From TrEMBL:
UniProt xrefs under PROSITE patterns: ABC_TM2
Keyword Cell membrane tagged: yes
The family this protein is said to belong to: Belongs to the ABC-2 integral membrane protein family.
Protein name, UniProt field: Transport permease protein
Amino acid sequence: MTAIAPRPRLRGFTAESVFVGRSLTQSLRDGESLSMSILLPVMLMLLFTFVFGGAIEPGGAYVDYVVPGIILLCAGFGAATTATYVARDMSSGIIERFRTMPLRSGAVLTGHVVASLARNLVATAIVIGVGLIVGFRPHADLLAWIAAAGLIALYILAITYLFASIGLAAGSPEAASGYGFIILFVPYLSSAFVPVETMPEWLQWIADNQPITPIIETLRALLMGTDMGTEPWWAIGWCVAIVTISAVWGAWLFSRKSRRH
């Protein structure tokens, strides 16, 4: 009886490109999640600008303050769907099919992460466009815009890897959605909507020592020309730390759970 030779693994990034295409197709088919990840931040921006903005900043300049925070909130809403997609893959049995194929196990997660990065950058551009329509007037030059885009992309990458790992850790898509919803509250405990110094003292410590505040302050400095201080180093450090921890945690979870199936 002739032994059947195992199929060689796919070379290069062939598997990753296939899974990126698969995840993008899923996103386009799931129009409700895609539209809500754009509509919710836009609605919040309009709410804070036209309803609360007059009370917070009577001069009408509040839109310039709040848009950088809304940008990160948009990225969070968009990345949260990644947790649901990953949990759905893990619970549907399709991972068993993938394990029989000659591809790297991490390609599945890479597909979800890269697709999330692409769709969230598009959603962020739409949110910025709406912000410009309602009065957002940044002072950034071309170099500052490029730096801001790089920081936004790095943050999206970090938060997406985190949500992908949460999707792996959750027992079901519903649980993954619930855990992700909790994380979406973190920007509200930062300088996204009000200056940190206006908060109670015990809350100021939390707002100053969590990752969202330095990222927002760096983004605000790039777009509005405010003083950066040491915030960019903290922003990049937090993003790199989240990516590293989430990627290692996700790889361990994927390997552990895929062996069970």
